[in-house]
Amino acid sequence: MTMYTVFHLLLLSIITCLQWMMPTLVRPTVPFGVRVPLDRVASPVIATQRRRYRALVAGTGALAVAGLLALSVTGAANSGPPYLLLAALAAFGLYYYLAHRAIRRQKQAESWYEGHRQVAVADTSLRTDPPRFPWMWASPAASVILATAVASVVAYPRIPQQTATAFGPVAAQLGLTTMIIFLCLMTFRSRADLDAEQPVTSAVQHRRYVVTMARTILGLAALVDASIGLAAVLSWPHGSAPSAVLAASLVPGLVGLVAIAAVAIRTGQTGSRLPATDRPDRPAGTTRDDDRYWLAGLFYVNRDDRSLLVPKRFGIGSTVNFGNPWSWLLLATILGVVLAPSLARAVLR
Amino acid sequence: MILSVDLTSETPIYQQLRDRVVEAIAAGTLTAGDPLPSTRALGADLGVNFHTVNKAYDLLRQQGLVRLTRKSGTVIARDATSGPPDAGFLPGWEARMWTLLAEAVAHGVPRDQLLDRCREALMRGVTP
To answer: ipTM, 2 decimals?
Structure first.
């Protein structure tokens, strides 16, 4: 089995586990991207869809793993894995959508929000006394970039005579880390999605969640930078390195991904799984039904909302507000940073 | 401070925002010098237009309960411990109080029950 296949096996396993767990990681009042009042979270349709979704995800994940193992003994071991992974992701997306649709239909048919006092709720202290961004946690990434730059300077005489080869990794690390810190900061300061039925608890959870995730993401940036640096250092002496050695350089990045997944499971989306506070908490009403701004519970489109980023409904982290034109610029910038190394290579060739 | 607005209420949202801030000052949750979020930030958090928040802040400013500072933006100007009210405050407030009481009497609420409810509300809103 090649390291390439092992890498895809690991990635598939992490994604399958996260997708399987996702119904428990999001708030109970937003099952499969559908906003429901607290008194409906135990509805039979939600439990049924959760069971069905998990069975399908587990079965598809197992099939995909079997497929990867089968590919590893055939000649398609190099080209097959990415397509298999994509197919599994597409299947997970379909299973999610089927569950989303079933719950949404039931909610509309039975008018779940009838008689509920719908409110919008905010914790002013999240703005007047916001959590502190953990800037110190960016120092490991800075150290790795500095170390790679120093190694580039020291090894320069031995590297093939192309500046891009010598300092390309440092440029990639800088670009990636800057983008990660920027996105992390934007998410950190984006609005909280508080639960009107537990406003104090959800505000406390949000505060802890943003700090924990920021620290984890900054740690991930350091590990990804380490992977880039290692791959460069290992390939310089010979112009390129054996694939097994290069594959080993991916280990820090994979460790980072596993760490993110572990933290996501521990905290839940927006901190929903963090311990509740012992401060007194009473419902302010029912969180307003804002399904009309969410396409399939995944894509947020609200022209009246100035936010660039909002918490995801099914998943961990944030998603863009496609109704805000600046969000498209943000997406284009991210795409540009990701594609920059390939474009640079093409231009310099 | 948790601030909520009822989106299905007949009471305008800016009025609700103003009322919640006043209640928080009375309860001691907000005290003189405490900052309030910017209009844009609070508007984004509640999913309402920032002009609506601005209108609520304007009302509070006219009533002397908040003021605008260059450094901290909008801050609470006074609370229960800041001394007696301004001269012009009581007549306007009494007029509103009479209407509120008359509304309860018109709906048949007995006067002694009315007094008990007022007493209870005051006790709930007083800082320990």
So the answer is: 0.88
* Best mean pLDDT range from A25-34, A63-72, A321-330, B68-77: A25-34
A124–B37: do the CB atoms touch at under 8 Å?
yes
CB A50 within 8 A of CB A20: no
- The pLDDT tens digits of the residues spanning A204-245 come to 999 999 999 999 999 999 999 999 998 888 877 666 666 667
- Structure confidence at residue B127 (pLDDT): 42
Hey, CA dihedral for A8, A10, A13, A14, is it positive or negative? negative
Residues of chain A whose beta carbon is less than 8 angstroms from a beta carbon of chain B are: 117-128, 191-192, 196, 199-200, 203, 284-285, 288, 290, 304-307
Contact A107, A34 (CB under 8 A): yes
What is d(CA B21, CA B60) in angstroms, rounded to the nearest whole number?
Answer: 8
AA identity, residue B100: L
Please answer whether residues B22 and B12 qualify as being in contact, where contact means their C-beta atoms are separated by less than 8 angstroms. no
- Give the one of A120, A192, A284 whose C-beta lies nearest to B48's C-beta: A120
| A119 SS3 class | strand
Sequence letter at residue A134: P
Interface test with A, best of B2, B46, B52 (most A CBs within 10 A): B2
- DSSP lists the bridge partners of residue A294 as A300
Interface of B with A in 3-22 (CB under 8 A): 3-8
Å between B97 CA and nearest CA of chain A: 26
Contact flag B7-A121 (C-beta cutoff 8 Å): no
> How many angstroms separate the CA atoms of A92 and A53, rounded?
8
- Are A326 and A316 in contact by the 8 Å Cβ rule? The answer is no
